[in-house]
């Protein structure tokens, strides 16, 4: 009974505070685990927060070989990062990303996902 207030406090204040300021993936093209018929011309990831482009990146790998050499481009609303790709041969590719939010605390999040070109 006496812990109900503590639990309610944590749910309302502490948990949302932990999540605030971290850019999370909202969508990506190609999508996670997508199988595409043609080589995509770019990788595009949209995040939940505005980003610092100089500290954020997208890297595309084929095995351990880095495929993407271009500088990422940030959309005018600062939430979508894209990177041009060369013509990709059929195979499995890994997208690695780092997103640093524009918020005051500069939290960085990282992740990766795969897609396949048939």
Structure description:
There is one protein chain. Helices cover 14% and strands 42% of the residues. It is mainly beta and 118 residues long. It has a single domain (23-117), classed as Sandwich (Immunoglobulin-like). Strands 2-9-8-4-5 form a five-stranded mixed sheet, with no helix packed on it. A four-stranded antiparallel sheet has the order 1-3-7-6, with no helix packed on it. Strand 6 and strand 7 (80-84) form a beta hairpin. The longest helix is centred in the first third of the chain and has 16 residues, at 4-19.
Pairing-aware structural class of the strands and helices? mainly beta
CATH architectural group: Sandwich
Give the class-level CATH name. Answer: Mainly Beta
Largest sheet: 5 strands, mixed
Shape: elongated
The total domain count is 1
Major sheet strand order = 2-9-8-4-5
Q: Beta fraction of the residues?
A: 35-45%
Order of helices and strands: HEEEEEEEEE
Q: What value does the average pLDDT take? A: 86
Q: Tell me the number of helical segments per DSSP (H or I, 4 or more residues long).
A: 1
Amount of helix:
10-25%
Spans where pLDDT lies below 50 across 5 or more residues: 8-19
Q: Keyphrases for this structure?
A:
118 residues, mainly beta, Immunoglobulin-like, five-stranded mixed beta sheet, 1 helix
């Amino acid at each position: 009974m006496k812990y109900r207030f503590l639990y309610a406090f944590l749910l309302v204040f502490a948990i949302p505070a932990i999540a605030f300021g971290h850019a999370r993936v909202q969508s990506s093209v190609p999508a996670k685990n997508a199988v595409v018929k043609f080589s995509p011309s770019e990788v595009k990831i949209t995040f939940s927060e505005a980003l610092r482009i100089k500290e954020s990146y997208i890297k595309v790998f084929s095995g351990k070989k880095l495929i993407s050499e271009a500088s990422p481009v940030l959309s005018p609303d600062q939430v979508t990062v894209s990177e041009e790709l060369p013509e990709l041969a059929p195979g499995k590719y890994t997208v690695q990303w780092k997103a640093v939010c524009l918020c005051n605390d500069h939290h960085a999040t990282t992740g990766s996902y795969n897609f396949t070109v048939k």
